[in-house]
Amino acid sequence: MGRTFVGFGFGAIQGGLFLPEAYVSGNFSRLVVSEIDAEIVAALRSAGGSYSCNVAGATAIERVHVEGVEIFNPLEEEDQVALVQAIAEATELSTALPSFNLYDAGDAPVAKLLARGLTEKLKNDSLPDCVVYAAENDTRAAIRLKEATQSYEPAGFEGRVQFLDTVIGKMSSVVTDPNRITHEKLTPIVPGLNRAFLVEAFNRILVDKITLPNFERGLRAFIEKPDLAPFAASKIYGHNAIHALLGYLAHEQGLEYMHQAAEREDMMEFAKEAFLTESGVGLRSKYAETNDELFTEEGFKVYAEDLLVRMVNPFLRDPVERVTRDPARKLGWNDRLIGSMLLAAEAGVVPTRLARGASIALDLLCQEQGLNDPATLLDELWEGETEDQRREFKELILK
Hints:
Blueprint: E1 4-8, H1 12-25, E2 30-34, H2 38-46, E3 51-56, E4 61-66, E5 69-72, H3 77-89, E6 92-95, H4 110-123, E7 130-134, H5 141-150, E8 161-167, E9 172-175, H6 178-183, E10 196-200, E11 206-208, E12 223-225, H7 229-252, H8 265-286, H9 297-311, H10 320-324, H11 327-330, H12 336-346, H13 352-369, H14 374-381, H15 387-398
Helix pairs in contact: 3-4, 4-5, 7-8, 7-12, 7-13, 8-9, 8-12, 12-13, 13-15
């Protein structure tokens, strides 16, 4: 039996990372994806399972083509049966959903489908062990997915299945504006569909270390780490925090696309200082004992400078509106901006630059909700958190 790869959700990360990596590896005889959007399912099937992805490099956009993808809609009974069988036969699977909240949602929950397919492995020793990459942007995605799946099979899948967290510092989007697709000369996912995958070329993807005996990954380009937590924190409180900060600064200045910020030396310098002297100091202090170059002063400087260049890649044409959307979530106590401020404060740094980004996000949230009392809004967002820190950060942000 050849290797089978199964992905859940045919979005930019699945279609622009997992499936292309599985395809170019040459290690899989079957590529399967689950998707509930009937239009996409029909379009990919009509194209014979072939699709395209636009990859933004430093100097141009390249097109990557993937062939032989089988797509199933789990809302259709016949497709669901085929999907469960593919899960049972799979060696590697990935969830790439908009949020971990969707693990156990809808009429055909991913967790329930996984449980049905993985249970077949327990019944049949000839079926292969597997790993499941949880690619939702959350530090506890893998354990959340495991718990949701095991709620349908309480005995669990120990020894046969391992759920892996991932750190995917790859900026990506699905472009649905037909004018953008035409103007930027993007190749649609399939001909005739007004959707295009646009992802950056960066492919240094980190995953948990695999402990299944004698298991060999087909997706060999990924990098295993024995402790992924410091790198996941760096993604959220470093990469995501500064990306959001730069986005809010760009929003304040009326910029439409992130690459326009590259023309503003003052803005880029402000973001760099926030990265190195606030976010970076907090992360390096928190994970000082981690034996990795990233958490050295020079290593983090290289990391920050590389990311700042990638954030304003003109070929990504990343809309500021996309980066700044959902300010309520971004202002959450443990989310990117405030979480990064907390780490900086723990390291003895007053995070004034990060607070500036939070202030713009708060103004935007007030506008969206038609409110003019930002202090009360912060109290509602941070209800239940430590009063002293709440007061300190509120003053810093409102100032």
